[in-house]
Amino acid sequence: MLLGFKTELKLNNQQRIALAKHCGVARHAWNWGLALTKQILDHNKTNPDSKIKFPSAIDLHKWLVALVKSENEWYYECSKSTPQQALMALLYSWKRCFNKTAGVPKFKKKGKRDSFTLEGTVKIARYNKIQVPVIGVLKTYERLPQVKPKSVTISRQADRWFISFRFEVETQECTSSTIVGVDLGVKNLATLSTGEVIAGAKSYKKYEAKLSRIQWLNRNKVIGSANWKKALLQIARLHRKIANIRKDILHKLTTLLAKNHGVVVIEDLNVSGMLANRKLAASIADMSFFEFRRQLTYKCQLYGSKLVVVDRWFPSSKTCSSCGTKKETLTLDERVFECGHCGFVIDRDLNAAINLSRIAS
To answer: What is the β-pairing status of strands 336-338 and 345-347?
Structure first.
């Protein structure tokens, strides 16, 4: 299977400028291609008798070379694969939009999610050095896997730069045969059928007041000024810290589950529907249920364990784990499950986790 690797780069000022230029070229190519494709779609909508064929990534790149590169010489200061990959990513976004799995692609802004992809002569020179086209040799803070990546993606978060690539790894065989049910929640991130309770990071809730105050203090900064740029950097750093705390606990939990259990059982949660509850939306988003399932899916494949996803309509919380009797109603305020048939009393989340584990067995 393919496994992704991402690490921070150790850069000097010249390399930072070169990376920023590549981000600018990728952003310009994306925005130009998006404007052109939107014009074509608008023309086809208003003129159904004389439709224009929707271009491919190769067509867009040919037009970019003929129309844009000749007028903007700074394109030649960067790798030719940068605008190519940006246009390929744009066509993939349109494909997802046409398949109704994502929304309409949006224009990119400078300083927000800056990234670009390089393809060509990519070589890991030493343990902490990687060679990429045009830019040259880049250093990292940690050791790199000794593989041969075909392409790399370089991105920026606040004032730090990261490089990522994919490589093939062999899947492992799981020696454990235990079954564990995992019930996700807002109060605690996960409750396992073994009785363990994993508290959520709740990093956004922890730093919400600080983030709100920083944004409030910088509300009247002049856009484009030096103080405005400092304020944006300060806010971006805090957002990065919040995301890193959340990712840390998710990676630790998913690795623990995939490594130590043969079968992991979770529910197919309707996250988008849960976020419609405005009272719990912030807490649900802070737990990051979708990211938990995404990480658990590929880690179970990597470590040889099996992931079982139970239908979202299965009454795991309403069913008694002792006698199997189903309750007709169970409100969110009832944190302790009390069975009216056998008198069994148990924590609500633990009861749901036990019922999930019994499905797989």
So the answer is: antiparallel
d(CA 321, CA 356): 10
Q: What is the three-class DSSP state of 78?
A: coil
> Of 61, 68, 64, 78, nearest to 22 (Cα)?
78
Rounded to 5°, the CA angle 252-201-273 comes to: 100
Q: Cβ(83)–Cβ(61) under 8 Å?
A: yes
183 is catalytic: yes
Residue 77 is among the residues annotated as catalytic for this protein: no
Residue with tokens 């060679």: 131
* Candidates 114, 119, 286, 349; catalytic one: 349
- pLDDT for 82 equals 95
Task: Render pLDDT for 180-206 as a digit per residue (tens, 0 to 9).
Answer: 999 998 889 999 999 999 998 899 999
CB-based burial label for 111 (10 Å; 0-12, 13-18, 19+): middle
User: What is the pTM (predicted TM-score) of this model?
Assistant: 0.87
| pLDDT beyond 80 at 361 | no
C-alpha triplet 333, 334, 338: angle, nearest 5°: 170
Catalytic pick among 114, 119, 267, 286? 267
Quick: pLDDT tens for 92-147.
Answer: 999 999 999 999 999 999 988 999 999 988 999 888 999 999 999 999 999 999 89
